[in-house]
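A further point concerns the way the authors explain their paired sequence and structure data. Each protein is reduced to its one-letter sequence and a matching series of backbone shape codes. An entry of this sort, consisting of the sequence and the corresponding backbone structure tokens, reads as follows:
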Amino acid sequence: MSTQSPFFVHNNVPIAQLALKHRLPSLSGEPGAAKDGALLFYGPNVFEGCSRAGKYIDRILKGAKPADLPVEQPTKIDFVINLKTAKALGLTISPSLLGRADEVIQ
């Protein structure tokens, strides 16, 4: 099961709480997971994906055939670290890793 599914969207908080209860670091590809208590989020930027989808729709509405459009991959990947969760797990996150994060949740 992909972590980007309705199950994970609706259960981010209980999953993060369960992982923390059992002292397990958790990583998710679900955009809100780190804000909901997971240790890390690493995945495609949702806003960029929506913008790119809009451009595809525009091209299709202007007459392009969907089969003729190229398949694209995300170009912006977000990395979020939840320091509150790291502290609760007794983990120290290195400054170099913190420096690479797009967002650090205190």
